[in-house]
Amino acid sequence: MTAASTPPPRRRRRTRVAFFVLFFVGLLVLWEALKFIGGDPVRVDGQVLWDPPLKIAMASDINMPHVWSIFGRLGEPTTGGSPETLAWYLTLQALYTWREAFIGFALGAFLGIGLATAFVHFGLIERALVPYVVASQTIPIVALAPLIVYLVGHNVSSVVIIATYLSFYPVTIAMLRGLRSPDPRALELMRSYAAGRWAVLWKVRFPASLPYLFTALKITATASIVGAIVGEGPGGIQAGLGRAILFFAQQYTVAPEKLWGAILFTALLGIIFYGVVRGAEVRILRSRPEAAAG
Amino acid sequence: MSEPPGTGPVVRLAGIGKSFDASGSPTEALRDINLEIGRGEFVSLIGPSGCGKSTLLRVIGDLTEPSGGTVEVNGKPAIRARLDRDYGMVFQSPTLFEWRKVADNVRLPLELFGYDRATQAERTREMLELVGLTEFADHHPYQLSGGMQQRVAIARALAFSPSLLLMDEPFGALDEMTRERMNSEVLGIWERTGITVVFVTHSIPEAVFLSSRVAIMSARPGRITRLVDIDLPRPRGLETRESPAYFAHITQVREALRAGGGLEPDLGSVERTAAEGSIG
């Protein structure tokens, strides 16, 4: 009924991608416009081609490298002697970080679902544990990360734990709400069937909580990546986007394009992971038009 | 689902009282309700807003406990009857699960009761046929109109052949035309299955058209002030709605309601939902 008035999904998706690209190009144009007004002189073969009228510190070539130098740099080798391009190197690091983030994302989801399920069924556990769950999110990760590394050791496990730590909270809170979302009549209906707790959980509470779960998973898709990146530093991991960012930050005054490239790939990773979760959401919530719209 | 032993009443209420302790001041919702409902009867509970008719239905269905008195269903305590799955429930809202297709909603109780897959499929098909929704089996609930959704809820309630069907204002949210059609359909189903029905409504024409007996309730505390036998000939249809006997019964029920202190109940539908919702 409502589907008839909206364009088919394929066209809608194409429109969305077109707008995304358009906006990205717009950002690049703005970036270059700022440099055109207040950046460093543009030189070609030593000749000054354009001398901007203003001097804006932020728009210097160190702070904001030219768009073409960032993209150009992606096509060149990471360092003088390396056989691979920077783009390929960053792709590999992004995949490495994504693997850590994904494990943290999945563990965080399981932990959050488990906690929320326990809270819904046992009020005592909820009253006892919720303050700790909230407190855990008040402690900044920069304080906690070294502690976790100290406890677990310099390995990937500590990174995964940090990613999990940043993921479980949104899932817990959203699932708590979702598991309690069924209409009281639905629960009475189950009561009239003499259905036990497990049946109510599987047949009513879990399915009803899915829209809430997906809202949380869209948050944790990006939060888990942040956790993995932040964890790679103290974790002493010699790969991943976090390592690349730390590494390139040290070289910033020499080669700022590399850090910008790493930031670009980090953003892309976040968008892609979010897109995967969103895709799963649309597919799974297809029968609930208003829930899938979120 | 189990056929009850003997031929005693399906529902026997003796001295039922119910009070709610809302915010310190107890409210007496039901007082001294006595009622017997025989096998195959269609009994409507009707009364003004907040008379506790929905509460009484919930007491019968063991969805809430009475403060006093005894409830027997098929000769057993209400809780035993509930655990034996003697009840089919239909609420005012269809309460369908949006993540399940129409057929899967009807199948839900069968799944819970551990019927084998073949029986599940067969019963589901039969029930959808009974309510005339065979071709909508694979639709999602949101694709159906309000009346159709309520038919799915009825099919689901009957899927496991309960001995007692409890309906709590099932057509209260539907427009008049749909409601009359649904009334005829429910009568058809009742005649074909021989199931016992307890039906809560605030519509006098609906109660008269459907019921074999109408229990008139008074406002707080809710009591049954009169039982009116509706001896209109069956099968009932359009001619029934136009017969003088039908109007005579409507007048009889209306006067009984007025005598019991009830105002015009048709006007109370909106407040009813709010008022009775708050006390359960």
Walkthrough of the structure:
In chain A, strands 1-2 form a two-stranded antiparallel ribbon. The two termini of chain A are 19 Å apart. Chain A contains 11 helices and 2 strands; from the N terminus they run H-E-E-H-H-H-H-H-H-H-H-H-H. Chain A is elongated and about 85 Å long. The model of chain A has no long low-confidence stretch (mean pLDDT 92). By secondary structure, chain A is mostly helical. Helices cover 39% and strands 23% of the residues of chain B. Chain B contains 10 helices and 10 strands. In chain B, the strands form 2 sheets. Chain B has a 6-stranded mixed beta sheet, sandwiched between helices. A 4-stranded antiparallel beta sheet of chain B has the order 2-1-4-5. In chain B, helix 3 packs across helix 4, helix 3 (102-112) runs parallel beside helix 5 (146-158) and helix 7 (204-210) crosses helix 9. Chain A binds chain B through residues 1, 183, 185-186, 188-189, 191-195, 199, 203-204, 207-208, 210, 287-289, 291, and chain B through 61, 63, 82-85, 87-89, 91, 93, 95, 97-101, 108-109, 111-113, 140, 142-143.
Structure summarized in a few sentences:
Chain A has 294 residues and is an all-alpha fold. Chain A has helices at residues 9-38, 67-74, 86-121, 123-138, 141-152, 156-179, 184-192, 197-235, 240-250, 256-284, 289-292; strands at residues 42-44, 47-50. Chain A is elongated, with a radius of gyration of 24 Å.
